[in-house]
């Protein structure tokens, strides 16, 4: 795959006009009236939002738009004041975060959470679900879990090879660079066999050399049948890989649509540049008149 | 100065019931702090629950010694659950505050005269080893065993052998648990519990299991201590908790043998200082009285604890690489 070629986009995801809250052909995540306020500040207020299945959706918006808060709400890391949301038809309101992850909706964090004093391989193995040896009683009898652990190790090594971390398998995660930790966190999330991968700013703090490989990893998730929802500030990345873009501002969804068209919408420009960027503010007052030499004479 | 007797007493500190009890309790702390990241400052409370549970079961309820010991362990499980349910959902520091307070509450309950018929108040409890049949269960015939500084009568030998068996089982259990996938989750929780939660693990349940297991080790430490000395509220004070922390950090918090060897080193050093400091004072080298010199060792313990935490936070047996990446 050439580096600069635009990947094939999934199209025809929505029904009707591409506007905030529009219906999707096959939604995986359906959000209704989710509201969260911190004191007097309403951080998130989403009336209706559907995330298309089997596609890469980008969640963009200026700082403080409520993107990460929405992530936290959807994954059970925070509880909303009101609202319901469902994942693959199952109601998720009030479900604790670890159960959300067990259902196949896995997330990563904006500030990478590599488990520093575990080795890279241990980080990976921790990700796998339904491990016999993770039950206290079974833990004491190695014959119950050794075979499963070996199989997990093979799977973990395969993933690590893909992410080019296989040489680091016995190093502490703390010794990895920031970008490598992002890769590790993504690879670890994949160990859970997710159906929906939620990435919170996967590119933040990653050097340009790694960006390209991270992009390809995200694209590969879609090719392997997973749905991706990611928060990102890098517009090039959004345009390059997203099939659908949801724009948030001040807690609300202000626009959604395919990347080429949504970026041109007035609401998006307003959200990023301010609604009054073109307004003539009149004569700027308060300037000191330039005193010419003649006048001083 | 009589160096012979000083060294003899120091060597004796290598293997005493107290050393074994310390090793067990420090092992519990290793489970709590070293592996699960739970800041437990109430390990003395867990020891007290074990010791009193054993003694009260025997003296008040007339149970045999082994059943009394099991009751002590059961009591510590209940204590861990009561502590854990409200605090384990909160941030780590709250557990530290709650555990130190709970251990003090417990000690004062044992000290108060309100329950004197059961707890013995300030006098504590004694005679349970004979009443419950622990002393009678001694398989060793009357006589002296061992050599040099390690000469014991049949009673002390029985206490030591019993303590060593309990300690070996605890060491094996901790080792078996920490090499398993269960141990991996526990260590992951120590590093970042949100990350582990995001991977679909029930973090609260794991932390509770770790708190209970470490608490049981602490209670077993209290029970082993109770087999050799009387049970009294004066033993289970906050300074005991901090001595145990010193022993743990000395050996290495996130290791299996660290707490055991840390306890041994701690008690050998204690035995050495107890003997050498008053001797130095008597011979005029230290400008203090003999009693002052004896208490000087606690000052040195505090100093030692600080030096370890600053210069060797991973302990003697910890992984060197861990030091490079102190958070």
The total of helices of chain B stands at: 15
Q: Largest interface, with Cβ-Cβ < 8 Å?
A: A-B, 43 and 31 residues
Low-confidence sequence ranges of chain A = none
- In the sheet with the most strands of chain A, the strands line up as 6-7-8-3-9-10
* CATH architecture group name of chain B: Orthogonal Bundle
Structural class of chain B: mainly alpha
Quickly count the helices of chain A.
11
Write structural notes for this entry.
The complex is a heterodimer of chains A (297) and B (327). Chain A contains eleven helices and ten strands. In chain A, a hairpin with a 2-residue loop joins strand 9 and strand 10 (252-257). With 297 residues, chain A is α/β, with parallel strands linked by helices. The longest helix of chain A has 21 residues, at 142-162. Chain A folds into two domains: 27-114 and 192-296, P-loop containing nucleotide triphosphate hydrolases (Rossmann fold); 116-175, no CATH class. In chain A, the strands form two sheets. Chain A has a six-stranded mixed beta sheet, with helices on both faces. A four-stranded antiparallel beta sheet of chain A has the order 2-1-4-5, covered by helices on one side. With 327 residues, chain B is an all-alpha fold. Chain B has a single domain (3-324), classed as ABC transporter involved in vitamin B12 uptake, BtuC. Chain B is 71% helix and 2% strand. Chain B is built from 15 helices and two strands. Chain B has helices at 3-12, 17-35, 43-59, 65-87, 92-111, 116-119, 128-131, 154-178, 181-191, 193-198, 203-228, 238-251, 258-282, 290-311, 320-324; strands spanning 144-147, 150-153. The interface between A and B is large, with 43 and 31 residues.
SSE layout:
The complex is a heterodimer of chains A (297) and B (327).
Chain A: E1 27-38, E2 41-52, E3 56-60, H1 67-74, E4 82-87, E5 90-91, H2 97-102, E6 105-107, H3 120-127, H4 136-139, H5 142-162, H6 178-190, E7 196-200, H7 208-223, E8 227-231, H8 235-241, E9 244-249, E10 252-257, H9 259-262, H10 266-273, H11 293-296
Parallel strand pairs in A: 3-8, 3-9, 6-7, 7-8
Antiparallel strand pairs in A: 1-2, 1-4, 4-5, 9-10
Chain B: H1 3-12, H2 17-35, H3 43-59, H4 65-87, H5 92-111, H6 116-119, H7 128-131, E1 144-147, E2 150-153, H8 154-178, H9 181-191, H10 193-198, H11 203-228, H12 238-251, H13 258-282, H14 290-311, H15 320-324
Antiparallel strand pairs in B: 1-2
Helix pairs in contact in B: 1-13, 2-8, 2-11, 2-12, 2-13, 3-4, 3-5, 3-11, 4-11, 8-11, 9-11, 12-13, 12-14, 13-14
């Amino acid at each position: 795959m050439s580096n600069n070629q635009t990947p094939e986009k999934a199209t025809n995801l929505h029904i009707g006009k591409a506007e905030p809250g529009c219906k999707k052909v096959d939604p995986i995540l359906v959000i209704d009236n989710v509201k969260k306020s911190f004191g007097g500040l309403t951080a998130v207020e989403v009336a209706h939002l559907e995330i298309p299945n089997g596609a890469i959706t980008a969640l963009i918006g200026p700082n403080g738009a409520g993107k990460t808060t929405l992530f936290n709400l959807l994954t059970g890391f925070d509880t909303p004041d009101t609202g319901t949301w469902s994942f693959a038809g199952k109601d998720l309101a009030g479900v604790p975060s670890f159960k959300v992850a067990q259902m196949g909706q896995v997330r990563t964090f904006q500030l990478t959470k590599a488990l520093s004093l575990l080795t890279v391989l241990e980080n990976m193995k921790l990700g796998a679900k339904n491990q016999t040896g993770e039950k206290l009683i079974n833990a004491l009898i190695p014959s119950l879990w050794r075979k499963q652990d070996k199989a997990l190790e093979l799977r973990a090594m395969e993933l690590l090879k893909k992410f080019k971390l296989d040489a680091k398998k016995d190093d502490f995660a703390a010794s990895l660079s920031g970008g490598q930790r992002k890769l590790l966190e993504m690879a670890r999330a994949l160990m859970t066999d997710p159906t929906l991968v939620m990435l919170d700013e996967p590119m933040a703090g990653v050097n340009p050399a790694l960006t390209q490989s991270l992009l390809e990893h995200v694209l590969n998730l879609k090719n392997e049948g997973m749905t991706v929802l990611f928060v990102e500030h890098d517009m090039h990345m959004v345009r390059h890989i997203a099939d659908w873009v949801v724009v948030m501002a001040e807690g609300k969804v202000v626009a959604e649509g395919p990347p080429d068209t949504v970026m041109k919408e007035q609401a998006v420009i307003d959200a990023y540049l301010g609604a009054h960027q073109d307004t003539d503010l009149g004569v700027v007052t308060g300037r000191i008149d330039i005193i010419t030499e003649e006048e001083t004479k | 100065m009589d160096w012979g007797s000083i060294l003899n007493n120091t060597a004796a500190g290598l293997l005493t019931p107290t050393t074994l009890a310390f090793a067990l309790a420090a092992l519990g702390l290793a489970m709590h702090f070293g592996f699960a990241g739970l800041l437990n400052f109430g390990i003395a409370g867990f020891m007290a629950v074990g010791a009193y549970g054993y003694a009260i079961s025997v003296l008040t309820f007339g149970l045999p010694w082994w059943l009394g010991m099991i009751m002590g362990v059961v009591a510590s499980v209940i204590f861990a659950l009561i502590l854990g349910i409200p605090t384990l959902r909160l941030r780590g520091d709250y557990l530290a505050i709650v555990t130190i307070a709970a251990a003090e509450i417990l000690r004062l309950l044992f000290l108060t005269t309100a329950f004197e018929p059961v707890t013995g108040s300030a006098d504590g409890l004694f005679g349970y080893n004979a009443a419950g049949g622990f002393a009678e269960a001694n398989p060793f015939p009357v006589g002296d065993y061992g050599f040099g500084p390690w000469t014991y009568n049949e009673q002390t030998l029985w206490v030591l052998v019993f303590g060593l068996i309990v300690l070996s089982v605890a060491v094996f259990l901790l080792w078996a648990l920490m090499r398993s996938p269960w141990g991996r989750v526990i260590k992951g929780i120590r590093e970042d519990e949100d990350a582990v939660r995001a991977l679909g693990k029930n973090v609260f349940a794991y932390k509770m299991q770790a708190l209970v297991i470490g608490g049981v080790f602490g209670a077993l430490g209290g029970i082993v201590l109770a087999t050799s000395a009387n049970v009294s509220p004066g033993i289970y004070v906050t300074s005991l908790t901090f001595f145990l922390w010193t022993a743990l950090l000395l050996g290495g918090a996130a290791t299996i043998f660290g707490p055991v060897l840390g306890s041994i080193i701690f008690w050998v050093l204690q035995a050495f200082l107890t003997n050498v400091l008053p001797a130095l004072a008597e011979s005029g080298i230290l400008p203090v009285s003999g009693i002052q010199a004896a208490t000087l060792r606690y000052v040195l313990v505090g100093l030692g604890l600080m030096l370890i935490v600053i210069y060797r936070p991973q302990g003697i047996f910890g992984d060197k690489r861990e030091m490079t990446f102190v958070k």
